[in-house]
Amino acid sequence: MTVDSEKVSANGQRVSRRVRSGDSEAGDIVPFDEMLDDLTEAVLSREDIVRYLHGSHGESGPQVRDRICGYLEELRTTQRYPIYRALKHPLYPILRKIDRQTEHIQIPQRATAAGRVLYASNHRSHIDYLVEPLALDEHEIRPPIMAAGINLFGGALGLLHRHVTGALPIRRNTKDPVYLITLKAYVAELLHRHDLMFYIEGGRSYTGELKAPKTGLIHAALQAGRADLVIVPCAVAYDVVIEDFILARQRIKRSQRGFGRELAELVRYGVGYKSRAIVTFGAPIPVEGCDPHSRSDVLELAHRTRHAIGLLMKVLPTAVVAAAMRPSITRRALETRVAEIIEVLAATGANMGVFDPRDTVEHAARAFVARGVLVVERGRFRIRERNVLRYYARSLEHLLHTPADRTH
């Protein structure tokens, strides 16, 4: 079914076009040039873009339009989902090391049946880009476009993202107003065609903590003006994060590194790697009533979403033991401290994956000793990699409100 619509074009004239009222389904292939033309027209016809071209922010003219079109060229993406699904096979050497588990999958099933979905997740690892979409795919839920850092778009991986997975390249640190207004307009129009998954913290957490929310993509989603749009919070948690040593030692992200360099490091730390990856979906958060022009509304929605994600993050043995550790501690004393932390966490409504203190210490000790983070000497646990241990402990700070640096 198609409907006629009118919009204001970039030159100020009203133009008509025919728009499909249906949404793309899993398995659809949107022709590359068709998607480009359709989205370019839609973005350039948006009121905020038209106003910008007419000098609302002090810039105007052909040069501004060329910059907007250049950014649209950078943002354009095509999702060829039948090919995307086949990627599981060459990625098997990585995926076989991960025990993937999914909780509350019925939530996205119902949400996608009812309307448009914006998935908001925490960001722990590059592995997130695999395990979260696969959790949806394995239950035949239509695939979202993934928002990803532009550093993941170089070389062959970039071609894969642009022409197969349909990932959306994001320049996270730019303050160029032309780019920001183009990105938000593009995302708003994209949500009329696809669901979108993004990481509310922006990039990965280099400290291990759940970072403050970024509001840009939530603001853009609200500008789509879809009455059926909901935010589905989701969280991913790992017993062991494959790049834990890399992240913990850097701690503060000083520059955007190429993915090829990070991949080499991942291979190094991936030797002997095994972990669970638990993806949990939460109750949809409606956006109806949120004013995209109200900064306080957007910020409140972002914090509400981040809070929901924090409660969804599975509490696993490694995080609890890391929070309970002292520089040197006996097993009995460690179990006592773990029991206290479990009690506090359960009272906050956290998504508990630990219950028995003895089992918790046993599972975490096995993982940390194998990883070289802890060592057992004469019946006592001693810390070998303090920064890595703190990285795991900080993943509970939003629940415990206790800085990890003070514990060890």
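The record above closes out task 2.4. Task 2.5 opens with a second protein, given below.
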Amino acid sequence: MKKLAIITGANKGLGLSVAKQLVLNDYKVVLACRDKIKGQQAEKFLGENAIFMELDLSNPKSIENFSNEISKSYNGVDILYNNAGLIYQDFNLTAEGFESMIAVNYFGTYRLTLKLLENLVENRGRMIQVSSLSMYLARKMQLKNLHTKESFTPSSRYNLTNLYRSMFAYELEKRIDGKASVAIAHPGITKSRQSRPYEVKSIRKSAFTYISTNIATGTAPVLKAIKTKNISAQKTFAPKYFGIYGKPGTMRLNRLVYNEDLRKKLWDFTAEELNLDLKFRK
């Protein structure tokens, strides 16, 4: 029987690249995407071992429906790769009144992971959390006024969400106590536009074009996190040199991630905000 992997944001970029490699390694891959047309295009591109399922991480009902469908359709989950996220978005609120990057990048990840945790535990599976070099630019934790324009900039909020995703993964590993495994991986600065479910003839240049790497370099740390037997969320898988170049290695996280009091504070805040906490069936 094929192992089951779920990849959020798998219709393009890093998510699609990882999905392609897992399909080649005989996984059944669920492409969890918000956009139905793009998700179906990716499904067709990857072939019969990939299946699109609609998932909007900003919508709790969508997360609930998705996790219920996974539970009905499959016996456990082997890999959950939390890849989807918004990058440098202008200030916007979701229907729940949450700032959009916090809602999708962090709250959505938290909700989906906890909803699927029993499925992961059933197969002694693994959650891989995407992060970013921007995590290191977050200098302090912010919980007040998260959903107002006060102190908001697209870059600082994106940095914060990557810090929170890393803190969540680290704390989750401790709380589940080996029932499943957890890893963190970031791609460095990679040309994610190289990965599309169609031929890419040209890539729009930006300030990062001249230091960014090809998509294979960005994909490699995620695949390493999936394949390595004994892993820990205490470090992140990343390109070996400066977190940008070379084969995958590991590097320390933002120093705030190692602060147990801050991690607990973030977890308690999130559990209360979303009315959702870690519980295992007895």
